[in-house]
Structure formats: structure tokens, C-alpha cells
Amino acid sequence: MIPFAQKIRLYLLASLCGLALVACQNKPIPFHGADIKGASYGQNWLLTDQSGQPRQAKDFQGHLQLIYFGFTQCPDMCPATLQRMQAALDLVAPETLAKQPTDILFITVDPETDTAEVLKNYLKSFGSHVIGLTGSQAQVDAAAKDFKVYAQQSSKNSKMFEHSGFIYLMDKEGRARLMYAPETSAKDIAEDLGHIVAEGTW
Fold first, then answer.
1. Please, what are the domains in the chain?
2. pLDDT score, position 98
3. CA torsion sign, 191 to 71 to 117 to 62?
4. What is the pLDDT of residue 102?
5. What's the whole-model pTM score?
């Protein structure tokens, strides 16, 4: 028969092991993007996609979304970012994307130039996951404000725009979760997407 004192020690040891196991299971995932969980980004926008269909945030519920603001006349950063987002999806296992569909939303900051037709032609080379969004100037300004995005025409007669280059990751409920700096690699974004789908809580 095990002495009472030894039973207590064994019980305490088992309890500590159980707590350690729970702690390991609840260890936060080291995401590459900045955690913006709880921020109210991207909840109240209304725009038009490249097929001329009206779109709003709730239309994409059920899908993860990588969202980026740019413009089709952008010579470098915008196309490079679109390529990087598509490359990130290409690095995610097909069965993972089948389990959790993911869209890339490209929202123009230059609606005067970037009509639905212009976006449709421009985005053909960036993959089937990319959805272009435009609208009236007021609608685009409202969307940029909703995501706290800075966008300003370089000069009155210029077709160039200065704008923030962050990528926003929205969960399947349409809530902002991660924000990526412009230099974030496709590999890092893909790893985060894999973690998110594996967690099943997004």
C-alpha cells in the first residue's frame, strides 16, 4: 500500500504535469504578422468588383482574405505585393486551401483610372484568387479610412499615389487578425495561413 504522503506527492506531480501540458497546448503561435485582433478594420465598406458586381465585407465571410490597397499604374510595389500574395497562396498545400478558401482583395486608391474593366485586364496575370475592387471616390476613401490606410496623389497632375503598403489578413468571420509589413515574405505569410487553418478557430 502506498503511504498517504507519497500519494499526495504523486497527486501533486500529476497535477503539475497536467498544468504543464495545458500550458504547452495554449502556447501562442509565433505569427509573422502583427497581431491586430480586436481592431475594427474593414467592417463597413461597399465597392464594385472587376466584373461590375457590388461587393461588401460580409460577402467574403467564410473565406480568409488578404487585403491590399494599391493602383494599377504603380510601377513596382503594387505588382510586387500582388505577386507575393499569390506566391504565398501557391506555397499553401492545396488541401489546406480546399479546407479554408482564401481570397486576395486588391482595392484601388485611384478609382478615376482604375475602373472595373481596367482592374479586370490588369489582374489577369496575378492568379484566380485575386479580386479587384473599385468604386466612386467617396466609396474608395471610405474603404481606405475603414482600414486606416493612407493614400494621397503625389501631385495634382500626377498619376502616381503615395500609399501605405500593409497587407491585412481577415478571418472567415470578417475580423481583422494580422497585418503584414511590405517586406514580409511569401513564405512567412504562407506559414501563418497554414497555422490559422490548422488551428480551426479563425
1. 31-199 (3.40.30.10)
2. 85
3. positive
4. 93
5. 0.82
Q: Hunting for cell 490548422 — which residue is that?
A: 198
Place of cell 495554449: 26
Instruction: Report residue 62 as a C-alpha cell.
Output: 467564410
CA distance 109 to 163: 8
Integer Cα distance of 18 and 144 in angstroms: 47
| Calpha distance 41→39 (Å, rounded) | 6
Q: Which amino acid is at 137?
A: Q
CB 76 within 8 A of CB 89: no
* Beta bridge partners of residue 134, listed in sequence order: 48
Rg (CA), the chain: 22
- DSSP annotation of 11: H
DSSP 150: -
What is the helix (H) or strand (E) element at residue 34, kind and residue range? strand 34-35
Q: What is the DSSP string of 83-134?
A: HHHHHHHHHS-HHHHHHS-EEEEEEES-TTT--HHHHHHHGGGG-TTEEEEE
